[in-house]
Amino acid sequence: MGFSLLPSSPAFLAVFLLSFVTWCLHPEPILAITRHYKFDVCVMFFRSNIVMLQNVTRLCHTKSMVTVNGKFPGPRIVAREGDRLLIKVTNHVQNNISIHWHGIRQLRSGWADGPAYITQCPIKTGQSYVYNYTIVGQRGTLFWHAHISWLRSSLYGPIIILPKLGTPYPFAKPYKEVPIIFGEWFNADPEAIINQAMQTGGGPNVSDAYTINGLPGPLYNCSAKDTFKLKVKPGKTYLLRMINAALNDELFFGIANHTLTVVDVDAIYVKPFDTDTLLITPGQTTNVLLKTKPHHPNANFFMSAIPYMTGQGTFDNSTVSGILEYEYSHKTIQSSRSPKKLPLYKPNLPPLNDTSFAANFTSKLRSLASAEFPANVPQKVDRQFFFTVGLGTNPCSKNQTCKGPNGTRFAASINNLSFVMPTTALLQAHHFGQSNGVYNPIFPISPLIPFNYTGTPPNNTMVRNGTKLVVLPFNTSVELIMQDTSILGAESHPLHLHGFNFFVVGQGFGNFDPKKDPKNFNLADPVERNTVGVPSGGWVAIRFLADNPGVWFMHCHLEVHTSWGLKMAWVVLDGKLPNQKLLPPPADLPKC
Ligand SMILES: [Cu+2]
What we know:
The protein folds into three domains: 3-162, Immunoglobulin-like; 176-363, Immunoglobulin-like (Sandwich), CATH 2.60.40; 383-580, Cupredoxins -  blue copper proteins (Immunoglobulin-like, Sandwich), CATH 2.60.40. The protein contains five helices and 35 strands. By secondary structure, the chain is mostly beta strands. A hairpin with a 2-residue loop joins strand 16 (260-265) and strand 17 (268-275). Bound molecules: copper (II) ion. Copper (II) ion binds at residues 493, 556, 558, 561, 566. Copper (II) ion binds next to loops. It is found in: Secreted, Extracellular space, Apoplast. InterPro entries: Cu-oxidase-like_N, Cu-oxidase_2nd, Cu-oxidase_C, Cu-oxidase_fam, Cu_oxidase_CS, Cu_oxidase_Cu_BS, Cupredoxin, CuRO_1_LCC.
């Protein structure tokens, strides 16, 4: 790694590297990495990310948690479209680690995608891995997070992708840009929570708070001092880069007495539209413009998020709030009341189970579909897939008492197949022709036993278990219908596809009708994204072009459902041309 690997386009002005000295709890030598680059026209961060343990206090509970560089949330990555990132991750904790760069297309660089046992073996204690990839055709906000077990509860941070230098946004330049990253806080150790749940077969304990930029805010015990405050000036436009990094909860978000303009989702521009409330699922990002009031309003405003919850299990129904505060100009400061005495308004958010709001909101999202930012929706389809997504059960083993439904173990599945994680990485197995005994290449393209998916659920809720994948030739045009089921209750599932963006060409309630519903597909300006909510008791249709060779994970971004098996992977074969092939694996790729 080094100078020669960096982009040499004259468009880049300068590359600067963050140098830092960091420490960790291990009795190892202090690592200090300082690298300086001078280059043409670009801003690009080269970071050495050290995974470490850190004490953090929230809600009067102090615990040690795994962080990157001692920060919670973790450090920001800022780059421009076209930049290459080299991110050296060193693991100084006892847990195995891997980091996923959520939403980054990873064209031909699947080795850097990050999901453990899918594209790489985990980084073991004391080891390092350099994630090496280039950002192509994306601008907006994404995020990085751990992709192993539930470690992403504390290992996450923003990825900010600025347009190429000299290229403006397709909207007026904002006065300031602010990342707003939602998370979930557990007083207990999330690793212990999921390990216990997997042992008993029951549902895991829910979080104790939601957080905005790591802070729960004043509506929780002992937490007023841990409140995110956004200080703004009157008459300005702010770009809020919203990220849902929560583990298990879709969120409604709003700012009292203010309207938001949605301009970008999942690092793709959309046709702007105004809304008082946003819906953002785990794995989704949304850029919004916030226009402040022309004059100081003599009030403060809560910016709050609550869960959107459709399932039958218990959930964290608490409210996270930050505060939007207007700054006084020098002129007004004497004549006005002090900020503490100002009235504080709360946003009106929808009911926690407002599925019609969810459907209405998501149907407003449209691609820009302009000459500069076209929506390249596949117009013809080579392969069609119909996947049911939902919950199910696995039998309890003998001599055990299980806490799942009727003494079984909770499971989740796609086409009734609950994915079993391999013990070696799928991408290596595929690339080196060693898939025998690691995975089966025949994933069911539709349910083996069709039923009334959203009607009365079948009596038998048992899933099958296996490690099956879909294999696609390079450049296959794919249409995928994802159908929620009512097994153990209809529920919204935010499905995330690695390695691709897809177009959301249709959605609806009830069972998908293959004769009627495709007539209403939007093939002109559907939203393009990497994570979509399968509507509770409904279906969603997506299309994507399989133009990125590799092995690509697809899973529910409610982490508990992923733990239960709501996941699978696509193998995209190499194309014929040299630039259609997966690059060779890097020398430092971790071994299992
Ligand atoms: Cu799910």
